[in-house]
What we know:
By secondary structure, this protein is an alpha/beta fold. The protein folds into 2 domains: 7-170, Peroxisomal Thiolase, Chain A, domain 1; 178-320, Peroxisomal Thiolase, Chain A, domain 1 (3-Layer(aba) Sandwich), CATH 3.40.47.10. The chain is built from 10 helices and 13 strands. The chain has a 5-stranded mixed beta sheet with strand order 1-7-6-4-5, with helices on both faces. A 4-stranded mixed beta sheet has the order 8-13-12-11, with helices on both faces. Strands 2-3 form a two-stranded antiparallel sheet. Helix 3 (54-68) crosses helix 4 and helix 7 packs parallel to helix 8. It starts with 6 loop residues before the first strand and ends with a strand.
Amino acid sequence: MIKGNNIVTGVGSYLPERVVTNDELARKIDTSDEWIKERSGIRQRHIAAEGEYTSDLGVAAARRAIEDANMSVNDLDLIIVATTTPDLTFPSTASIIQEKLEMRHGAAFDIQAVCSGFIYALHIADSMLRAGPYKNALVIGAETFSRILDWEDRSTCVLFGDGAGAMVLSTANDSDSGIIANFIRSDGRYCDLLYVDGGPSRTQSVGHVRMVGNQVFRRAVKDIAIAMKECAAIAGIEPKDIDWFVPHQANQRILDGVGRQLGLTSEQIISTVAHHANTSAASVPLAFDVAMRDGRIKRGDLVMLEAFGGGFTWGATLLRF
Length: 321
Ligand code: UT7
């Protein structure tokens, strides 16, 4: 068995109560359930309530992950939050979550790698646990992406949703489980294919998501497949050797394309895109939690996580659960 190191001791997720179907969107903008389903696989998305913030979603997912790990907040040393939709420009959403969890010790910070944020955050947590002296890191992907959508731009607003997912990552001596390999990449040449047209320094505003969808699509399929091969190669295996593929949930056609390139069966691919749409940094831990709780992903399974997003940023994580 391949040896891992830091192990995923708990997983949790949270989705806002309100569900918005494609038909509901089609009543407000020039789109249709048929177009959205055919081009993306998305049927519905969850949208945060007024007064419900990214930190609220993140805290709810975190509490479930901490409970799943049979731990309390006192056991945590680090909180790392991946988000593109922080509650405020500062302090970090991680600091706000630390306060909401009443955690009076340790360190908390955010990272920004858009849809790849959770993969980046896991790599950072894994590295920090390996370096020490930390024992347990709470890694959260949380987004209220609905707040940065232009609800009149049909080419983007139908594709995203809100949600949060979390994992507790813990040091372990002599474990057969855990994170085996990390692979992250970015290429700033593609900043203008997927971006937000506002920010504190340039516009003193939050801005809205802009995307050249078909160009992002082509790069995503190619780069995700490369990332998965590179990540698997670090561990001396091939992507088809994994039990489960937990991808970023942007588009069902991307998942199918990557699956075909790597020789994965559709049963191996965890897909939640139909129900959650693209929840950016939250999508990977959310999908993992769904598949763990419905009994597909079990302890001992070999799982590959993957994401691709603005920047471009992309990456993959191989772990034995
Ligand atoms: O999470 C970060 C990474 N993001 C992604 O990976 C997203 C990648 N991109 C995609 O998922 C797909 O490119 C989309 C789902 C965004 C679009 O699918 P597509 O097959 O690439 O379509 P397209 O952009 O080439 O647009 C086709 C047509 C256009 O009309 P014309 O110019 O052919 O007449 C659009 O105006 O579809 C039209 N269109 C729509 N029609 C109905 C665009 N959005 C909509 C809409 N409803 N919501």
